[in-house]
Amino acid sequence: MTTANAYPVTQTIRTIGILGGGQLGMMLAEAAMPLGYQCVFLEDSADCPASLYGRVFHSEQLEAFIEAADVFTLEFENTPTATVEQLTALSKSGSKQGMFPPLIALDIAQDRLKEKQMFNSLDIATVPFMAVNSEAELKQACDELGLPIVLKTSRGGYDGKGQFVIKQDSYIKAAWQELKDAVTGKGSLTPTPAPLIAEGFINFSREVSMIAARTQNGQVRCYDLVENHHHHGILAKTQAPAVGTSHLLKQATDAITTVMNHLDYVGVMALELFVTKDERGNDALLANEIAPRVHNSGHWSIEGAITSQFENHIRAVVNLPLGDTDNVHPAIMLNILGQYPDISAVLNIDGAHYHSYHKEERDDRKIAHITLMPNDVADLEPALAKLVATLPNKMGLEKKPSPIDSQPKVEDSLTKTDSNNTVESKVLAIEDGPSDKAINAKSKTEKAKK
């Protein structure tokens, strides 16, 4: 039996309020519609991608946005925590049916130091790191971690801002002078006072990520590990599943399940990881960061998994059982940056699935993605070559990468020979929004420090 507006009489959630209206919000709304749910969005850009799928409320219309929705989620981890606190309070009072993911997940994801401390408290290995509150503590970190290190603001910062690579002792004073205001919340780096974080350099072979979903009753389902490649710090390509990682699958699933259970998490989460070697020379994983939302490295799942990350996030938020996360078929996802390709040329390639974000063209802006799933797996690489040839911005994918070149670099100066050693630095950033999350390679692997 249904009501006149076609909602089941037992369905108490009809509208999902999404904080943010970018392409992630758009794809969440696309996934919600077949399940019978509408979405509204809190977003200051009226013509955002999500506006195609529901009403957009300006941040000054917060009360109207709240009134329009039954349950809430987000598409962007830099959402103001004050807004999430207000929505959480409404849920606790019973006037609304939930704010997912929980505030604690957002708080941790916005703070690099808290994030790594959480990993280590859960016995999940990371790069070695230390908190830095003074120039003296920075000198101590350089001594204990060993140079080179990267010094970052623990909050804020993106696209190389809010970080300083210290290659020798003479750089310490300049690094402290550049970033010290973040400790007191002065200047433009971050309005929230927070310690800096010093991270050590480690060797790694590649970057992988895992996406998982968790329901309100604690059910967890994980997708396969995928491998990510970047161009100028922006995700260019994701391969699903990551080849040759079956022996790492349990470690990754255990890690993300542990984190989600610890946070009492609801929804989809991404965990970024680096493949390195342990003391015995075996492959091991280091956790880099979490993203408390659906994630760019999971876009392949729309066609490539039985249930997409977007549908599973909606299911979790409205308290429905999760769908099967198995791969339907091996796939490669490419981001389209800056300029749209000829869609006819793209779709002339067997197995190509095109997703436009309806954004204006702008340098290095994510405006679409394409997922490749040819029927024969042997055709995957040839199809990729054909696809790359159609792209105005080829993101370096037309070149056959060497093991070194397959990872993007930080500043060119870091790849040159210093008087004491040669440092080859690598930066990884697979955020859907701005990110300066980085990890760097040193001539030896160091143990993660708590």
Keywords:
450 residues; alpha+beta; Rossmann fold; D-amino Acid Aminotransferase, Chain A, domain 1; Dna Ligase, domain 1; 3 domains; nine-stranded antiparallel beta sheet; four-stranded parallel beta sheet; 25% helix; 22% strand; globular; disordered C terminus
Structural overview:
The chain has three domains: 15-99, Rossmann fold (3-Layer(aba) Sandwich); 104-127 and 201-450, ATP-grasp fold, B domain (D-amino Acid Aminotransferase, Chain A, domain 1), CATH 3.30.470.20; 128-200, Dna Ligase, domain 1. The protein contains 13 helices and 17 strands. It has helices spanning 23-32, 62-68, 81-93, 103-109, 112-121, 135-145, 172-179, 181-184, 249-263, 301-304, 309-317, 343-347, 380-390, and strands spanning 15-19, 38-42, 56-57, 71-74, 129-132, 149-153, 163-166, 196-200, 206-214, 220-222, 226-231, 234-240, 267-277, 283-291, 331-337, 352-356, 366-372. A hairpin with a 5-residue loop joins strand 13 and strand 14 (283-291). Helix 1 crosses helix 11. It is globular and about 60 Å long.
